[in-house]
Amino acid sequence: MTRPWRVNNGVKIANRSTGVIRSIDVQGNCQLELVANSAEERGLMIDFRLEDMPHVDYSYAMTSYAQQCKTGERVLVQLDTGDSRIRTLIDKSLVYVGASRGEKEILIFTDDRKHLLNECSPANRVALKPKALSREEIAERAHSMSIGLAS
Question: Quick check: helix, strand or coil at residue 96?
Answer without folding.
Answer: helix
